[in-house]
């Protein structure tokens, strides 16, 4: 049996030759990560890292027992002490578990945390949907104002703008507070009850447990029945309604265009009031690049203090695939500044020393260690995208003079070995 990737996963590699797979190139991931780290600094976020596995209860109580994620998509396993663990399907519940456990609320009234790492969902793989995907997410804990929602949305929207993603559409909705949703749940149940037998098996269960989840159903018959259903908007409390109106005003103030989408309820149970999703162009069925919302009750549900919070997460694969499909220019990977080719054993020693000294000066360098013919060594330097090469043989060792060849322009500069680094620093890449 040949060993291969688990289904729904992929490798990120330094060299990717298939243009369809170009989003898996390491350089592209670094490009994104650099932009993200800078963006988080501008917005004053600090990084949190949690384990990739947690006790199952974190997500059962956090995301909700009858959500698709918890019911169908978790990678569940027993550890040796027979505790039930899961590979984390999302970041928010895990971050809140850490927040509560370490009593972070005692240290500061507001926390602005971000994370980037793998999440696991046992889904049917397709473009933009993987069983292991990388999320960049951010959570702001301790503020309940619509200004805070606007800032969170602005963070994500301007991040996409900075990357260059085109055709951005921000969809927003309010799913109200507990009271609003209670009233709406009752109305929805009353409306759907006569059609109970026509609903899909999942939706029949959800009619009892959590009718709001029926709104997420992809079943065409469910969708048809929902056409005439009552809408959440009509059941919002005064507080939720004015929060939403204020948010819209603030988004306009920040010049962030938005569309209201009443069907947007999100597939996780913890949301309250604001929910949002951002799409960019077309990425097949999976064109939501990022999403989030307010979740004022989650920390309390998980056993912590009653603190409001808002956040979002974005799938990095989807961003990179969209970026390539929209032909947005990205920087190419960089090779070494200097590539040394020794001819003979004493030249090898000199090159090894030169390479060490070059690196000590903060300049990147590599050398041929396999004794290739000069032509082959230079071809390899070219593949590596080296900026300069030097071939060092007996003549160079004797005279102490080398020829510094610029690979792209095919021009050469003579320099003494003693002056090599000064010349490199003067000439630059
Ligand atoms: P989510 O909508 O489930 O929200 O996931 C966030 C983003 O992760 C999606 O918009 C999508 O870009 C990406 N994503 C999700 N599943 C997959 C997959 N199977 N393959 C590739 N990408 C995927 C959450 O997870 C919430 N924790 C977001 C949040 C943070 N809300 C508040 N704070």
Description:
The protein has 429 residues and is α+β, with helices and mostly antiparallel strands. It contains 15 helices and 16 strands. The strands form three sheets. An eight-stranded mixed sheet has the order 1-5-6-11-10-9-7-8. A hairpin with a 5-residue loop joins strand 3 and strand 4. Helix 1 packs antiparallel against helix 5 and helix 5 runs parallel beside helix 9. The longest helix has 18 residues. The protein is elongated and about 95 Å long. The chain starts with 25 loop residues before the first helix and ends with a helix. The mean pLDDT is 94. Bound molecules: histidyl-adenosine monophosphate (HAM). The site of histidyl-adenosine monophosphate (HAM) has 27 residues, from strand 6, strand 10, strand 11 and helix 11.
Task: Summarize the entry for a quick read.
With 429 residues, the chain is α+β, with helices and mostly antiparallel strands.
For this entry, give a set of tags.
single chain, 8-stranded mixed sheet, 429 residues, 15 helices, alpha+beta, 5-stranded mixed sheet, elongated, 37% helix, binds histidyl-adenosine monophosphate
Radius of gyration: 28 Å
The first-to-last residue Cα distance is: 47 Å
Number of extended strands: 16
Mean pLDDT: 94
Residues in helix, %: 25-40%
Reported for the largest beta sheet, the result is: 8 strands, mixed
- Any low-confidence stretches, pLDDT <50, length ≥5? none
Q: Strand order across the biggest sheet?
A: 1-5-6-11-10-9-7-8
Structural class computed from helices and strand pairing: alpha+beta
Beta-strand portion reads: 15-25%
Please tell me what the overall shape is: elongated
List all distinct small molecules, including ions and cofactors, that are bound in this structure: histidyl-adenosine monophosphate
What's the helix count? 15
Quaternary organisation of the protein chains: single chain
